[in-house]
Task: inverse folding
């Protein structure tokens, strides 16, 4: 951890804990109504999209609107609903379906596998090299913590490909595929789920998605098979590009720091908060933009309080920023293009030794 | 049909249930609509002096009418949270059939979040109920009956008494124990005595009248029905065994007493059908691991939700905030939950 700066970790923890407690005491009807309303919107976008895709044969513009509508539905499902519900943000509602155990999302990655790797490895060990496999996803070299290899030379192309196929990237990655398929083992790791179980989930969820998007839904359209197939393909592509871009902007901007395993041994709550703060970056934007990113545009707040209902990050952000300022901690935020440019620069910079 | 829709939903909509997928949409048109529950509308809420709340609700048409003595699970949404409790229906099936109304009588002194929320219910509001459940109904016998009620255990007997025809030949005696000045529905019992030819009742207090032993032993030839706290039931059951008397019963343990104290004391924990004795000092996760139960372990600090499981009943405390849980079914994280009462976890 950065040793040049001395942060009063106890005070930091107390302040952030009180921000959290304050929001927790306010959670209630408003939040429950909100998430149900987002689900209703998602259903409306999904079905308008699916119907419009088929009407493409009358007027191709309708197909285009359908693609946009379906992509919006998938983005809402993956980000504002799926990601957040699976984080347990709405578990307090006691709803049979809106909770982290039963939610499943419209993406190739199996929800339970994601929940395990993402919530456990990524959120507990954020940006600790060797523990948080999300840092660079084992594909990209994004800091000097990794040895330079020849394949890093073309990692910008790798990044573009990853964005295009992001749902498969996430799925393959969250299963820890390199371990499951190629037997790379880390002895200190405690395996929560057996490899064969992970493999089964990868293939069954992945296959289900392929069959659904490229066979069942097109077949239901009968003679309009191709309109629906290409529409689904385009909607998935848009969703992949969007989610990948938002996630990269939240984690791999130029100033995001990395940590060593020694840094986090016997870490206090305050030190954990501090690491979360330096490991994420925010994107500025309007409310609609925030909803479409699943409020991951508030990546810092999300990493500090992963299980608070995400819409609440909006009201927390100014308080968090003020606390950071008091402790001299950098609050990494900026407009979309600034943050995205910073990501691109980082990917390109570490392409070279 | 339903299985087909659910299978379609699983394959096309990545949702385990077709109705569940549409639930938030349907709720826009039918407030309170929930898959797997019946809807009911609040008709009347009244708070009585004898620490009871009377709730009259109108179940939707599809609700299968109860038999007198049965109970339902009542689910209300309060400040965004769904809470469920079980209550015996305190009205006769005829009322449900003719006027589509059922009545619940609820003790209002219960600690915990639920009953205080009931008083906030407004007429016209929607809530959810389960189908009627339970085997505690009028026995199929010509023998005379002894009904032994303790406290709010009077409710199934009211439903039964109101359901029998006025000219019934069966002799029925009700022994109703309650704390001084807290007998419910005295007027209704008096009316029943007037209208039913062979019915009589006695309002009893333990401190004044002693326990039920004498009453029961002198009526050993009758069929006993018992509803009340566990202690009352245990005593009656032991006597029935001794005297070889037929007995039907329904007993409830009061909401588990939450003892918020740092002093060490013993509790029980039920997990996957096995029961362990634990203390209130450590988290549930620590106890389960100590007892070598298979549990998924994650960060151990309440972040990752890997150790989450369903608590069927019991009260736990969040060790981070000190917040106490509700006593009914909820999702909890084992690593940050400290038992405060006896706890039962689902398999």
Result:
């Amino acid at each position: 951890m950065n040793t040049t700066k001395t942060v009063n970790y106890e005070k930091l923890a107390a302040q952030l804990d009180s921000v959290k407690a304050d929001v927790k005491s306010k959670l209630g009807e408003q939040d429950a109504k909100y998430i149900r309303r987002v689900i209703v919107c998602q259903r409306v976008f999904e079905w308008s999209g699916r119907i419009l895709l088929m009407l493409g044969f009358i007027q191709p513009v309708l197909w285009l609107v359908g693609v946009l509508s379906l992509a919006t539905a998938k983005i809402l499902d993956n980000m504002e609903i799926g990601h957040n519900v699976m984080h347990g943000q709405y578990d307090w509602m006691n709803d049979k379906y809106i909770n982290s155990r039963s939610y499943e999302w419209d993406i190739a990655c199996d929800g339970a596998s994601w929940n395990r790797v993402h919530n456990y490895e990524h959120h507990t060990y954020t940006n600790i090299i060797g523990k948080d496999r999300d840092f660079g996803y084992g594909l990209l070299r994004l800091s000097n913590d990794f040895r330079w290899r020849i394949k890093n030379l073309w990692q910008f192309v790798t990044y573009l490909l990853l964005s295009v196929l992001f749902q498969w990237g996430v799925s393959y990655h969250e299963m820890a595929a390199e371990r499951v398929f190629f037997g790379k083992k880390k002895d200190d790791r405690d395996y929560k789920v057996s490899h064969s179980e992970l493999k089964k989930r990868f293939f069954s969820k992945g296959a289900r998605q392929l069959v659904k998007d490229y066979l069942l839904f097109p077949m239901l359209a009968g003679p309009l098979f191709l309109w629906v197939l290409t529409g689904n393909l385009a909607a998935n592509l848009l969703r992949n590009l969007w989610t990948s871009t938002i996630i990269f902007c939240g984690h791999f901007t130029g100033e995001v720091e990395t940590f060593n395993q020694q840094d986090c041994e016997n870490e206090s709550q305050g030190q954990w908060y501090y690491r979360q703060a330096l490991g994420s970056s925010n994107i500025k934007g309007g409310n609609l933009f925030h909803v479409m990113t699943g409020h991951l545009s508030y990546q810092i707040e999300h990493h500090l309080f992963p299980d608070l209902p995400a819409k609440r990050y909006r009201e927390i952000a100014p308080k968090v920023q003020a606390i950071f300022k008091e402790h001299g901690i950098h609050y990494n935020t900026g407009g979309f293009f600034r943050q995205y440019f910073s990501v691109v620069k980082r990917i390109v910079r570490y392409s070279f030794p | 049909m339903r299985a087909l829709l659910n299978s379609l939903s699983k394959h096309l909509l990545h949702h385990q249930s077709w109705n569940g997928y549409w639930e938030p949409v349907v709720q826009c048109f039918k407030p309170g609509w929930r898959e797997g529950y019946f809807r009911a509308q609040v008709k009347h809420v009244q708070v009585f002096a004898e620490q009871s709340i009377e709730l009259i609700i109108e179940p939707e048409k599809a609700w299968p009418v109860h038999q007198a003595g049965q109970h339902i699970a009542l689910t209300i949404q309060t400040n965004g949270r769904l809470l469920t409790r079980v209550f015996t229906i305190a009205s006769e099936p005829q009322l449900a059939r003719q006027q589509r109304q059922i009545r619940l009588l609820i003790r209002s002194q219960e600690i915990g979040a639920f009953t205080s929320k009931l008083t906030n219910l407004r007429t016209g509001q929607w809530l959810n109920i389960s189908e009627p459940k339970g085997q505690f109904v009028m026995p199929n016998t010509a023998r005379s009956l002894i009904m032994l009620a303790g406290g709010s255990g009077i409710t199934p007997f009211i439903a039964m008494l109101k359901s029998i025809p006025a000219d019934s030949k069966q002799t029925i005696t009700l022994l109703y124990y309650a704390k001084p000045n807290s007998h419910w529905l005295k007027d209704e019992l008096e009316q029943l005595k007037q209208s039913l030819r062979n019915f009589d009742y006695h309002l009893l207090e333990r401190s004044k009248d002693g326990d039920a032993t004498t009453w029961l032993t002198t009526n050993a030839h009758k069929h006993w029905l018992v509803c009340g706290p566990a202690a009352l039931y245990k005593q009656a059951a032991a006597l029935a065994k001794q005297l070889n008397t037929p007995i039907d019963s329904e007993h409830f343990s009061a909401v588990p007493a939450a003892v918020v104290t740092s002093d060490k004391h013993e509790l029980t924990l039920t997990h996957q059908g096995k029961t362990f004795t634990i203390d209130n000092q450590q988290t549930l996760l620590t106890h389960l691991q100590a007892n070598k139960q298979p549990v998924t372990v994650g960060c151990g600090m309440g972040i990752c939700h890997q150790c989450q499981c369903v608590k069927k009943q019991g009260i736990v405390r969040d060790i981070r905030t000190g917040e106490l849980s509700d006593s009914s079914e909820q999702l909890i994280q084992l690593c940050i939950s400290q038992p405060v009462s006896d706890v039962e976890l689902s398999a």
